[in-house]
Design goal:
single chain; 349 residues; Porin; 2 domains; 8-stranded antiparallel beta barrel; 3 helices; 15 strands; rod-shaped
């Protein structure tokens, strides 16, 4: 019936946006408009020389969606015009028919998914028809049944686009030329009060708290090693000599100092009272250094050795040659060492 049909639609910036998921079709009032192509069936008499029975159509509408399945819609529609030319004895007669009116429809929908639905509609159309020519003019208001079907796309919570076919049966009357009207249109609707429901925030994941570790017992301190007793010995020298007479008594002390790096040693040199005191002081220092050198030769660090010469300041008690022999000496003393809290502490020499 419609050999060639040009469908025009209402444009909106909102239609170009990416669709948002609508989880349902809640009740809401809506308002919109549509435009499309119209074809009049039987618009012209059989003897018409020419017949233009197509035109564009536009409508505005408003309604209320009660639930996802049922809506009621009121519309005002301009059905355009139809033109025909009829023969006369000596001329032709041009006749124009114009149609507009109001529609009231019930729409029954079937949601396909969250954004698409199919629907059918039925109701009545109150037509206001007018036919005019150079010879006559007629106007008629008539009720006509209406039926249609379409597909709607809820591309935003507030916006819906639709493509629809509508059939109006017998619009007009006997005076204006009763005709059927077939319409294909594109429409855009705005639904009031619709908002995208924010996605529920995921519940916070609270990590399971492990019980606190049991208190760590303080490490048991090792038993203190037996303390090292103080060590004292003497090394003797010949008259006016800084060469020790015997060193065997130092070997156990050197061994102990090698095993226990905490130990220290004090080496004090002395001289008898023979000769000048200044000379005796220097001699006592050389004697102390000679003994200290034996410790260093065994690998004992210098910072663990304290060396001093004291001349004839501590002459041995006694008389004669025995006193002098006992005064020509070096006192070697290693302080006692106590092991406390796992550490060794040496008394200062």
């Amino acid at each position: 019936m419609l050999a060639s049909l040009c469908v025009c639609g209402l444009a909106s910036n909102a239609a170009a946006r990416e669709p948002e998921a609508v989880t349902q079709y809640p009740s809401a009032a809506y308002f919109g408009g549509e435009a499309g192509a119209l074809y009049y069936d039987n618009a012209c008499e059989a003897n018409a020389l020419s017949c233009d029975d197509t035109d564009v159509t536009a409508a505005i509408f408003g309604g209320y969606r009660f639930n996802p399945y049922l809506a009621l819609e009121l519309s005002y529609r301009d059905l355009g015009e139809a033109h025909a030319t009829y023969p006369r004895l000596t001329s032709t007669l041009d006749v124009t028919g114009q149609m507009r009116g109001y529609g009231l429809d019930v729409q029954v929908s079937l949601p396909i998914n969250d954004t698409w639905l199919a629907y059918v509609r039925g109701g009545a159309f109150y037509s206001q028809a007018e036919t005019r020519s150079s010879e006559f003019q007629a106007e008629e208001d008539e009720w006509a049944p209406a039926a249609g079907a379409g597909i709607a796309w809820q591309f935003r919570p507030n916006w819906q686009a639709r493509i629809q076919y509508l059939f109006l049966s017998g619009v007009g009357g006997a005076d204006t030329g009763e005709s059927n009207a077939e319409i294909v249109s594109l429409g855009l609707s705005y639904f009031f009060g619709q908002h995208t429901k924010p996605a529920p925030e995921p519940a916070a994941i609270v990590p399971a708290t492990s019980p606190p570790p049991p208190p760590t017992a303080a490490p048991e301190l090792p038993l203190c090693a037996p303390p090292l007793p103080a060590w004292t010995t003497q090394i003797y020298f010949a008259f006016n000599s800084d060469e020790p007479l015997a060193m065997e008594s130092l070997i156990p002390l050197m061994d102990r100092m090698q095993r226990h790096p905490q130990t220290t040693v004090r080496i004090a040199g002395f001289a008898d009272s023979s000769g000048p005191s200044g000379y005796n002081l220097a001699l006592s220092q050389r004697r102390a250094l000679a003994v200290a050198e034996r410790f260093r030769a065994r690998g004992i660090e210098s910072n663990r050795i304290v060396v001093g010469g004291f001349g004839e300041s501590e002459v041995d008690t006694g008389t004669g040659s025995v006193r002098d022999a006992l005064s020509r000496r070096v006192n070697v003393t290693s302080p006692a060492v106590r092991f406390e809290n796992g550490q060794c502490r040496s008394e200062k020499p």
